[in-house]
Amino acid sequence: MIERVLVPIDDSEMALRALRYALEVHPEAEITAYHVVGEPSGMMAEATRLALAEDIRAEAEELGAEVAAAADDMADEYDRTVTTEVAVGHPVGQILAAAEEFDAVVIGTHGGSLADRLFVGNVAEKVVRQSPVPVTVVR
User: Fold this and answer.
1) Gap between the Cα atoms of 65 and 86, Å rounded
2) How many C-beta atoms lie closer than 10 Å to residue 79's C-beta?
3) What region, left, alpha or beta, does residue 87 occupy, with left being phi > 0 and alpha being psi -120 to 50 degrees?
4) Which residues of the chain have pLDDT under 70?
5) Which residues neighbour 92 within 8 Å (Cβ) at sequence distance 6 or greater?
6) Which family would the database say this protein is a member of (predicted)?
7) pLDDT digits 0-9 by tens, 58-97
């Protein structure tokens, strides 16, 4: 029985579809919406913002607040609550590390900007290939 589901989420439509799917298919499970803010680098806007911040963790939480609010709004539609967590680092590595504490992962097929997909690669594909738990990919 699946009791804990990890849903990696960003501000993309596909991530919200994955969250909706998890809420519908796993009505009794504890759902965690997991937002990973990229490591500081010159490549992406969020990461650059982190690189300039005095308190990286506080800045990451602020960046994740909008995503968390969207997750909470969707959970309200189902009269449910979701736990939201924000991590800093490489999305694939952070998702795989977090997945070890869950029974399943539900992830959107893609998300983020074109630059994210070009520089980071297909996060969903890498998670499917390396996850320690079953993964459902939502389109």
Assistant:
1) 9
2) 7
3) beta
4) 39-53, 111-121
5) 120, 121, 123, 126, 127, 130
6) Belongs to the universal stress protein A family.
7) 777 887 898 999 999 999 999 999 999 999 888 999 999 9
Give the number of residues written for the chain.
139
Residue 30 is classified by DSSP as E
Q: Across-strand partners of 88? A: 37
Q: Which of 66, 14, 80 is nearest to 37 (CA)?
A: 66
Residues 96/123, Cβ–Cβ less than 8 Å: no
CA 107 to chain centre: 8
Count of domains forming the chain? 1
Please give the pLDDT value at position 60: 78
Output the domain CATH number for residue 134.
3.40.50.620
Letter for the amino acid at 45?
Answer: A
Residue 131 near residue 99, CB atoms below 8 Å: yes
Range of the domain at 18: 4-138
Q: How far apart are CA 129 and CA 131, in angstroms?
A: 6
Main-chain phi, psi angles of 105, to 5 degrees: -120, 135
**100 secondary structure, DSSP code:** T
Listed residue (11, 18, 35, 36) closest to 104, CA to CA: 18
